[in-house]
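If you are new to this repository, start here. Below is one unmodified record pulled from the training split, so you can see the exact layout before writing a loader.
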Amino acid sequence: MSGLKLFRADTTNSGMTEVMPRLAEIEAEVQGLVEAHMETLLGVRFLASEYSTGAVHGGRIDSLGLDENGSPVIIEYKRGTDAGVINQGLFYLAWLMDHRAEFEHLVRDRLGVTAASQVLWSGPRLICIAGDFTRYDVHAVREHRRSIDLVRYRLFGSDLLGLETVASVIGGVQVARRARRQPSVARATADIQGTAMVELAGAVDEVLLGLGDGVKCVERKTYRAYQRLRNFACLCPPRRTKLLVYLKVDPKDVDLVPGFTRDVSGLGHHGTGDLEVQLRTARDVERAQDLFRSSYAAA
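And here is the target side for that same chain:
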């Protein structure tokens, strides 16, 4: 993968052995691995494989899923490099937007009524997983008004799978909605909680978006999710005296500080992540940055 080398430590001879990367023998091998572990690998709940788009449309979507924020996800796979994978995925994405009721019925059957009622149609996603992509592919996704992730895979040995995000763009519809909604949300919270918490939320937003290339922001009514392939942080609307951020960090790996960090695994809350971080001042944001970075790296 793009210059990445993987080595296995030989404890017997105190040496290192390189684990050589390889492509799958057939496309279905990659598809089977991802579908069997989709939520772990991509943060997407699996819905269907080889989903037929009907006799008129005449196609089969490799994988259908629903991500952590309720966005519909189409996943297309290619064993190696294939110039048609993006256009194929966009073709199916257009079909999906014209068949919303059918998709919601599928979600209801697989995940229940609540999940079906919360599908986020403003942010459908296409994830293309392939052996490699060209610079023309990377340029092409930036010209489309859709949320698209290009993910390069490699198999290492018999039991290791590597995924690398080559390009990640957010659809123009989502960006426009976020730009329109921010002023009204800021005014409403400023009237209720005061400008200090709103300004603090702005500082947190800047830090999270600045963690690296390809960070995408998804707006829900009860939280704002920051994601790479998966969510790594969820910022809730400001309360009167504090902000709550939920991170994909294992609370067992953190020295919890009362009033600052809390283990919320198993507890109901808005957004995703088992570590709650409470922010009251700019100093708290500085204290939390290592946790932000850890969650970003894990995603």
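Two things worth knowing about this chain: The longest strand covers residues 147-156. The CA atoms of residues 85 and 125 lie 14 Å apart.
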